[in-house]
Amino acid sequence: MSNIYGILLIGCGHIGEEHLQDIYCRDNIRVIGTVDTDICRAAAFARRFGAADYGTDYRPFLQRADVDIVIIATYTETHLPILQDCLAANKHVLCEKPITGNLKDGQTFVEAVKAAKTKVLVAHILRHNASYLTIRDLIRNGAIGELRLTRMTQNHHALDWPRYLRLLEDCSPTVDCGVHYYDLVQWITGAKIVEVTGMGTRTQDDVPRDNHTMVTFRLDNGCSGFYEVGWGESIRSCNIKEFIGTTGRITLKMKMGREDDFEEGDLITVYHSDTHTYESINLRVPYKDMNAQMQTLIRMIETGEDGNPTIDEVWQSFRVAIAAAESVETGKTVHL
């Protein structure tokens, strides 16, 4: 019989909900506690996901023997001190990205993980998405020849504006969301981003920093690309994921963005420029496979396998994201 792991969730917001709703019913998971600065929200999460207890302070929970894994789903600025408390209590950790809001704290985070006796996985959820796994395999197997260009856009029409405004107080969208996609392109290609150039703008007056950014980048294998991200009340939602090679291209359309046949799930389209033919691949998979991510951490605990991503890969994409934010602010190209 598999081990049963006691889970503590810290942060009962949007992403905390996504974590628990995908794992609370699993055979090897038991939700022990839910913690939030809003006691009513913590209590509601406890009722909904069958937690044994709830509260506003996570520290007493770290002393409990029935808590094995802590999910850190709080704002970025709190990640490092909570991680340090968890590791001091010998708890395993699944921490939301980005690891911190600046390079110095990020380095401290990475050093703490490397020195820890317990396991830590940073939540780069796209690593556990079957559509991106399929695209990676197609590219690495030469389906479109040599990859030369990646085009990625992730713009949000922010109807819940207070939530996004609070995220903007912590860090730039090119850091918060960008770590996913800088990691994605390096993971898919096996190459590293070595140069970034960015620009940004404020589409409304109440933002503490640019809420829309455009970053171009170059990898050490010669591949180039761009990443556009924006959060705003007047920005139109847009999701573009396209990979262009010497003999074709691969385009991903998520289930939620399909105009028809959305019941088929995500749509991957492979265009072969040598034969002028199209190949369609439908995948009925979750966008954020939180359970696959949690089971990865559990395998790390049980078998000692490396994380996905490893902490070195987390650091690499984080450095790119911080460099991109620096370029947006200064208008200068940053070389890594």
Please provide a written account of the structure.
With 336 residues, the chain is an alpha/beta fold. The chain is built from ten helices and 15 strands. The protein folds into two domains: 5-123, Rossmann fold, CATH 3.40.50; 127-288 and 320-335, 2-Layer Sandwich (Dihydrodipicolinate Reductase, domain 2). 34% of the residues lie in helices and 29% in strands. The strands form two sheets. It has a nine-stranded mixed sheet with strand order 14-13-12-11-7-10-9-8-15. A six-stranded parallel sheet has the order 3-2-1-4-5-6, with helices on both faces. Helix 3 (79-88) runs parallel beside helix 4, helix 4 (103-115) runs antiparallel to helix 10 (311-330) and helix 5 runs parallel beside helix 8 (178-189).
Q: Can you tag this structure with a few keywords?
A:
336 residues, alpha/beta, Rossmann fold, Dihydrodipicolinate Reductase, domain 2, nine-stranded mixed β-sheet, six-stranded parallel β-sheet, 15 strands
- Classified in CATH, the superfamily of the largest domain is Dihydrodipicolinate Reductase, domain 2
Residue windows where pLDDT falls under 50 for at least 5 positions: none
Task: Strand order, main sheet: write it out.
Answer: 14-13-12-11-7-10-9-8-15
- Radius of gyration (CA) equals 20 Å
SS-based structural class?
A: alpha/beta
Number of domains: 2
What is the total tally of β strands?
15
Helical percentage: 25-40%
Number of alpha- plus pi-helical segments: 10
What is the overall pLDDT average?
A: 96
Largest sheet: 9 strands, mixed
Topology order in helix (H) and strand (E) letters? EHEHEEHEHEHEHHHEEEEEEEHHE
CATH topology (level 3) name of the largest domain: Dihydrodipicolinate Reductase, domain 2
Strand proportion: 25-35%
Which CATH C-level class of the largest domain is it? Alpha Beta
* Shape label: globular
